[in-house]
Amino acid sequence: MKKIAVLGSTGSIGRNALQVLSCFPERFSVFGLSTNTNIKLLEEQIRQFKPKVVAIADEESFQKFPRSHDAEVLLGMDGLKRLCSDPQVDLVINALVGSVGLIPSLEALGAGKNLALANKESLVMAGELLIQTAKDKDVEILPIDSEHSAIKQCLLSGKKGEVKRIILTASGGPFLTKSKKDLKKITAKEALSHPTWEMGKKITIDSATLMNKGLEVIEAHWLFGIPSERIKVLIHPQSIVHSMVEFVDGSVIAQMSLPDMKLPIQYALFFPQRILSNNASLDLTKIGQLTFLEPNHKQFPCLHLAYQALELGGTAPTVLNAADEVAVEEFLANRIEFPDIQRIVEGTLREHQAKPAACLDDILNADKWAKRKAKELCAERKIKG
Ligand SMILES: NC(=O)c1ccc[n+]([C@@H]2O[C@H](COP(=O)([O-])OP(=O)(O)OC[C@H]3O[C@@H](n4cnc5c(N)ncnc54)[C@H](OP(=O)(O)O)[C@@H]3O)[C@@H](O)[C@H]2O)c1
After folding, report:
1. Is the pTM of this model over 0.85?
2. Options 3.30.310.50, 2.60.120.10, 3.30.300.130, 1.10.1740.10; which CATH number does 313-385 get?
3. Nearest CA to ligand 1 atom 3
4. pLDDT of 221 above 70
5. Does residue 39 line the site of ligand 1, with CB under 6 A?
């Protein structure tokens, strides 16, 4: 029986992960859960999964949380660190959103835990450090992103030296056919309605700007050791082909399924095994057609900014990630316009002198600097009235 810690259990991935775990009670037990502020749902999850430990990031929510159960309740980042490094934990699922996920990812790997990673921001900020820590501790980082799970599956068809390129697919988000002029008027509500996936707010906005795909290019680079010029992005609005790998002989292997995050979560939990499940079967006759097109970089410049940051290297991807996090938050609060997200990220990157990201302090300093700079730039663009 594997003991699992689910960080961010009240979010979209966290809830899906618990659903998957609940289908295999003979294989997994839930050791720990965590939330930021959603203590109502955390209470329900405690009743259902009976964890030994829970962590609450937000101090006010921690104070309010009723102690009418047996779980030990931990507070803040120290609580998350303790939860994911507990000697009893076998595997950590990191389903936190944003840069807050980095330290728990490092802590889990450093404590010798296998890490099922949805929190792509960790890898964007500190790819080299995480991959090195996993190597040093002889543990695995198992991607919980449908694209990276797809690539991991496709790569089993050949040797690493036989890979020509990786082709990441992107739904294109809700504004695929909008003009630049139309994008200016987009509201947060419109940007939050994704055509094919139901996800948390930040990743939904990142999908609408294509920054999500940019973050995934960086994630793929670190997970699979492939340089950026051999990672291509294709828009695929049906979200059925989750990604592809082209091999040197011209064969392209694709992984397909209906869009449902439970499949990549289950794949990560059981890797390298495949387990019978009641996930819905893909009926291609019902889908009808699968289409692919080039991303429009002029319309959605965030993707290109992510490639640039990866090429610059060092602290540049950390800065890209931090500026995007701030800009998305400001957009969701109706303080800047949709196209400002890209402007803030570009402006912050322009003012940054990339340095080597040799240790955690370098990365945290760059993250702090970029968040401050991005906030200044947001204040300059603030919507009046
Ligand atoms: N959703 C998807 O389908 C999907 C697919 C692929 C990859 N991912 C990646 O998975 C990660 C999670 O995405 P999501 O869509 O599940 O996000 P989400 O629905 O917003 O959930 C995020 C989780 O993190 C917690 N959290 C937020 N801020 C926190 C903080 N400051 N400290 C501690 N905990 C905090 C939230 O607690 P509260 O509930 O209290 O807010 C929640 O449990 C992201 O990195 C995303 O890119 C998501």
Report:
1. yes
2. 1.10.1740.10
3. 199
4. yes
5. no
